[in-house]
Each structure stands twice: as structure tokens, then as C-alpha cells.
Amino acid sequence: MQQPPTPIPASDHARRRGRAGALALGCTALVAFPLAAIAQDAGQDTGQAAAQEDGSSDFYRLGTIFIDASVEPDDDAASTIATELWTGGKVATSVLDTPATVSVVTQKEIELRNADKVEDVLEYTPGVTTDYYGTDDRNDYYLVRGFQASTYRDGLTLGSMRGVREEPYAFERVEVVKGGNSTLFGTSDPGGTLNFVTKTPRFERSGEVYGSFGTHDHAEIGFDFGDLLNEEGTLAYRVVGKVQDAELEYDTSQDDARFFLGSVAWAPTSATELSFTIDYLRRDATPNSGGYPLDRLYDRDRFFGEPEFNYQNVERPTVSASLRHDFDNGLRLNANLRYSDLSDDFGYVYLSDTADRIGTLVNRDYYGGESTAEELIGNAILQYDTRLGTVDSSTLAGIEFRDASTTRSSFYARYTPIDVANPVYTGAPTGITPDTRDESDFTTKSLFVQQNLSFSDRLIATGGIRHDWLDIETTDLVAGTREAADFSETSYRAALTYKVTDEVSAYASYVESVAPPSIGTDPERGEQYEVGVKYQPAGTNALVTASVYDLTKQNVVVPVVLDNGVIERQTIGESRVRGLEVEARAELAAGLTLFGGYSYQAPEFVRGNVRGVSVDGNEFASVPNHLASLWLTYELPETGPLGNTSIGLGARYVGAYHFNAYNNNGESDEQYYLDASFTTELAPNTDLQVNVNNLFDEQYVVGRGTSDYYNTGRTITAALRRSW
Q1: pLDDT category of residue 83 using cuts at 50, 70 and 90
Q2: 132 vs 143, 190, 365, 427, 703, CA distance in Å?
Q3: Domain ranges in the chain?
Q4: Cβ–Cβ < 8 Å for 365, 349
Q5: Which of 237, 273, 198 is CA-nearest to residue 25?
Q6: What are the beta bridge partners of residue 626?
Q7: What is the pTM (predicted TM-score) of this model?
Q8: 20-723 homologous superfamily
Q9: Which of 636, 440, 547, 434 is nearest to 9 (CA)?
Q10: Does 17 score more than 50 pLDDT?
Q11: Which pLDDT score, from 0 to 100, does residue 644 have?
């Protein structure tokens, strides 16, 4: 049975004339890293050039720890290279001085590759494995350094809201922080953290509209525009939306989506900003192809489920607010609050094949569920910067809370078999009765402190501590029983960064993580040792990073599918991943842009068993030893009646991996993919873009349970975009 685990509930701005209100914001683990924003050449950074024109290029400086008040999260919307981070808020934190491996996928790269799903967004990110569940489209599936990644939006965990595919068009960028860090992120998985940075008002007139068409009857329209709302320039808005009507590559499929976001920001002074955002996401789709028989490769358009019982309806409204204030004495405040509501109903029929099957008749099962969730989460963070003699100090302290509740039911049963040589559908199952139905409540309270010290403009020391109190209560509505548990966990972090030159930094770090716990299992604790080096050459828009790491996870909890289809989480022991990562991004002369990387990861179950069977020494499922990717874009010289024209070509390699933790259900083949893009300017501010993913339509088995699941085939899309 191929069932991905259901996620566990987890735990501009101020106008360009002055952005001090953006200085302190945010603050999660990375913001507490040494705060340094290295400005690019004015000729390379149009955002900074605009700031210089109106005199806002002043810095809030504290020795070697300083923030560029002119940098904004949308400043790299025209670049595939991000030299600053905004994880957890809108503070510019230098990637060069951050003692961790970080990959940033900018809005420019998302548009360049026409990444329509989060899995597509992450395809060229070293150390990240995607698409290992193939045509299971219920969620976004990705692994970072071999483990599940914790997912955040604007620095606040998505928690119970994670059970939905996110909409990439809603975000300025996606930041991938490798290695768990619970000191400020809170309960998180050890592999890493994804932070989605939401589009917010820019305090200037800007916008775009587009329409696109493509393979599988894919059609969508979208818009993103904003402007000032008053003459004083203290009030601004932004509106983002997308409507998608599409199918998937198998017969009788659906992939429709609706998304809307509206945001208003008020900056009465350069020291204060208050913003409100509402957004609404709805997806009406088919969740699963039902899988393919195990005996050979089949055409992707074949469908062995049930057309009348293959549905997923997801709806999620969200309201959020943020307040930022600079007290103008080294003290700054950032506060964030978000409320979300989620409903998710799905059901499908899938193959239950065996390798020793005789004949063409294959058993089938059906599976589905209904869930609702509510979540209120917020934080308040104070940051104080000062000088202690010859030492620059930055102290961060904060509180965080989360209150969430979920109601879930699931059903599973044997269904009618199907002849895969001559499929005849029998309709939707009747008399469905839930096997499980439960209610859960989660409450989290957290305190955290982090200290950064800079010595002699070269050595930066970072230390952090966080304590989380977690209360969980679950009621089994079928059995009428109730369980409760509380957890109290402390996590630590320490790092040293040495600035070899203004272009090169080296670091060593130790971080701890505590994964969101569940009743009946011990909290998963992780620790990671990492050393790395980063190079940002002067005069060139480029960034090169390299790192090696040793990541260990205790009390490993894995999802196990029981005979009745229920997914149970079991503690199996200890696991470890050792590896290295290299990533390079550069915008070179003559219109050439490149980004790519390589990662090696060696996953191992150190000790433990799954359902009584030892997995000691085995490798993880779906984690390849090798990943590599490279994308090149070349802008052609302007000739003829057309304006700017560019062509892009990308190559991806995914090494072989096991299909299960027992390492006895086969391995995937090595995977090779080519992607391509072509963009031309039809008129001023009007572009035509064509993208082809999986250019040669390579077909691989990427997941295997009781059936095979294939990678996505070739897709072609054409988009017409008008911007201003």
C-alpha cells in the first residue's frame, strides 16, 4: 500500500525614504545569526540604487554586525541570487555571515523555471529530495538531508495547516535552512526548515497579469499588483490571485485551484509598521492515480482507480498581522499573529498488487478521510544591539505561543479487483464507515534567548537556548477514550563564524532539534555538527557555499501502515545522515546566469526495528546518495524586431534509493532529466515564456508500495505576461 504519512500537527514596508521599521523584525534562528547585509554594486542591485536615489541608503551599523536599511525581500525579485535572508521576518541577514547552509529560491527563479508546485520549486536545491511519491498529489513531499522538513510561513510554523499543497505564486521566495534548529524555530525536524516569505505591500506602484496554457489541458490566469493608498505614502496595499483549471497526466483527473491574497500596510513613521494580510486557498483535485501494476512500466495516462471515487477538496482561509517598531535606542520589537482554518476531504481507490501475481486481475483497496483544523499562533521578539568596549553585541529574546485543534476521521477497506489488461470500473464504494475518528488539541508555549558577539570585526560567536512546553490531548471518538501528554524540552545552539576576508567566511556550528511529538512516543531529538565555507566575490553577483555535516536523530518515529490501513507512528531507535553539499549561483558577464549544486548524503539506521523487524544498518527509504543539478540561462543580444530574449537549459540527476526501510522492495533507477525555457519580449513589459520540464519524457519508478508510482512526464507550458 502506497500511503504517504499524514503530517503530524506541529507544534515597502516603511517607504523607501526610511525603512528602520524593517530593521528588527523578525527573528528566528537566522535573524539571530550575525546581522550583516553586504550591499551589492549599485549597477547590480536595482533595489539599492533606488534607495540611493532618494537618500535612504543609510545603515544601522554596529561594528561588523549591521543591517542594510535599504534592503527588502523583493529586491532580488529580478535576480536568482539572494545575498540576504528574511527568515522569520523582514530583516536583512547576510547569507555570507550565517553559520548554516542556506539555499534561497527567489521569485525570479520560480518564474524562470515556471515552478507551479513546491516540489518543482525545490528541484534544483542541493540536499533536497522531491517527487518520491510520484502521482500522489495530496501534499507537497520533500526531504531535506534525508529527513522530513519543518515548514514555516513568515517565521511561524504552518503546523496543523501543513495538510495542503502550498501555492508558490503567493511567495516572494522560499528559504531552505539545512539542519534542524529548535532554539528559535521551536519544535522542528532535524533535516531542515522551509520558510515561505509571503508577498506584502512594496509602497510603490507595481504589478503584473499573466495567462498560461499547457499540457494536460492546463489553463491559469494570475495577477499581482499594488500601490500607495494616500498622498503621504504611509499606506499601501497588494493584491495577488490565481485561478487554475487543469488535469493531471492520468485519465479522469483534475487539478483545479483558486488562490487570493490581500494585504494592507501602514507605516506612519520610519520606525513603525503595521500590516494585515488575508488569503484564501482552495483546491479541487484528484489526490492519487491509484498506482500502476508492479510487473512492468505502463503508460502514464492509464488509470486503475475509480473515476467516481477519486477526490480531494481542500479549503484554507488565513488572517495574519504583524507589528514592527524601532525604539531608536538599539531596541526593536517584532510581533506576529496568524489564524488559519483548514478543511480537507479525500478518497481514492488504489492497486494492491504483489510481485508474484499470476494473471492480470489485481486486488484494490480504498482509502480516505475527512479533517478540519484551527490554529492560532503568534510571537513577540525583542532585539537589543549595543557595544561592550571593543565587542559588538546583539541580544534577542522572545516568546511564542500556539493553540491548535484538529478533528480527523479515516476509512479503509478491500475493494473490487480490476483487470489491468481490460479495466472495467465498478463505481464508488458504498456504506463507508470510518475506522478512526479523533479530536486533538495542541498547546505550545515557548521562551528563547540568543546572543551574538563580534570580536575585532572578524570573529562572531553565537549561542542560543530555547524551552518549549507542549500539551497534547486526544479523544478517540469511536472508542470513547481520551489520552493526554505533556512535554517539556530544552534545545541549544552554538556557532563560530570567522571572516577570513570580506569575501570569504568559514564557520562551525552545533545545533539541536526537537521534532513535534505525539502521544505514545518519545520526542524525536536531533543534533548536527557542521563546518562550512562561503565565498562572495567582490564586484560579481555570485555566491558559492560548501559544507560537511553529521546529523543524528534519536527516538526516530516512522509511519507504519497497519493491516487495516491505519497509519501508526512507531519509535524505532536512532538514525544518522552524514554528507556534504556544494552550491554555486552566479550572474556573469555576457548575459549568462547559472545556479546548481551537488550533494552527497549517507543515510543509515543506526539501531531500531519496524514492526519487530530489525533495520540496523539499512538506508532510509527515498534518500539517494547523490543529487546534482545545473541550470544555465543565456540572454541573447538584442537583434531584430523583438526585445530581450533568453534561453535556459537545466539538468538534474537523482541517484538510486531504496523504496522502503527494510531495503527489500527494490531500488529506483538513477534518474536523469533535462528542462528548458525560452523567453522573449514581444513589446515593452510584455513577455512570452515557454517552459518544458522533463524534455525527453523520461519515465522512472520513483515510489513503490503495493503498486508503482512514476515521476511526472514531459510538460509544456506557454505564458504571456504583462508587467508594470
Answers
A1: confident
A2: 9, 19, 21, 29, 6
A3: 20-723
A4: yes
A5: 273
A6: 600
A7: 0.87
A8: TonB-dependent receptor, beta-barrel domain (2.40.170.20)
A9: 440
A10: no
A11: 87
